Amino acid sequence: MVLAKLLSVASSRRLQAGQVLAIAELDRRLDVATERFPATVQKLARDFSKAKATLDLAAYRSSRALSADLAVGKELPDIRDSLYQADLRRIVPMDREEEFRMARRHEFLATLVRSWLEKFGLPTAVVAEIDRAPAREVLQRLAGRATPRGLDRAWFDRIVEQFEELRNLYVEGSLSIVLSTVNRYRGLGVDTADLIQEGNASLFQAIDGFDWRRDVRFRTYAQYWVHQAVLKMLYNSSRTVRVPIWVQKILGKIRRAQEEGRRAGRELTHAEIAQRIGVSEERVDWVMSTRRYAVSLDAEIAGTDGASLVQMLPDETLEPIPESIPPGDLREVLAEVMADLPDREQRILRRRFGLDGRDPQTLSEIADDLGITAERVRQLQNAAIGRIKRPAKLRQLQAFVE
Predict the structure, then answer these.
(1) pLDDT for res 399
(2) Do 43 and 85 have their domain in common?
(3) Is residue 314 part of a domain?
(4) Which residues are CB-neighbours of 112 under 8 A, at least 6 positions away?
(5) What domain range is 365 assigned to?
(6) How confident is the model at residue 6 (pLDDT cuts 50, 70, 90)?
(7) 3-state secondary structure 196-224
(8) Three-state SS for 308?
(9) DSSP letter at 300?
């Protein structure tokens, strides 16, 4: 058992005034039997306050960085983000023993900070909320309050900052937990970096709820919080129009039931799906009716040589074609406007836009006939259009577009 392995004779050496305590020494003072731990933490918190002692977190961070340099790079799930994974390999993941020690350190500093926050006159519920905030916000909340008797404010500010730093070290040692979950849900409509960020943030919630006394690994407990955070991000952000989470969960059950039916060689009816997932047929009908997805108007339509959906929709504000064309022969004006263009550019415009009465042709079709590339056809087309857009030529065509 890990707890039994951690227990040793606690150090009874008295703290010196202004002492900077090494993390290893803090661990020795906290290595007591579980039933004695609360009393030990309370006593050590009083001793810390009396001696105005602090922790040597800088040395602890340096030792972990050195361990990362000496360790063989751990294989991490491929999340297609080489820079983030390279940074993560420079952080040593906490092993089972380090997780328990870190949880004890966190509980000690949390007890120390909360004991003084309550003496500032803050309600217990507010204290529980404020001590999870960044150190800057905690100190801002206390700025207008009188300093409790016997408290060195400069020392307390430093302890609050160290509490935040310890929480950050706690999270950094657990970051690798997030990748395996994120890798399962990659490519479902939310950017991988956003999923990682949401999973990393959930580690702070896991820290607050973790109880090392149950002799369960922190990574096992934190995996639940990461999983829930990633799923919530997907449910809330993967669709343009948000669908309630419970609806999306039923949709997931329906999809799995449909896949089972297809593996069996047939499509299941709504009644069969309802029976398999344990809901009413009316509920299945209603949930299935919500399965709509937004489509961008700028989305390219396959087989149209780059045309977008918005280009295929009619503009109902325009007049019908016969009534909108003013008097005059558009064909003659176009011929006059294009008269000074090179022959090849004239042929490209006529065939590309159907000016000769035939169906418009794609860049690829024109390129095959002319023996050049489609990109070169596009360049010649743009050059010809640029010449037509000169003011003198535009004035000739203005009557046909007003």
Answers:
(1) 62
(2) yes
(3) no
(4) 45, 48, 49, 159, 163
(5) 325-400
(6) very low
(7) HHHHHHHHHHHHHHCCHHHCCCHHHHHHH
(8) strand
(9) B
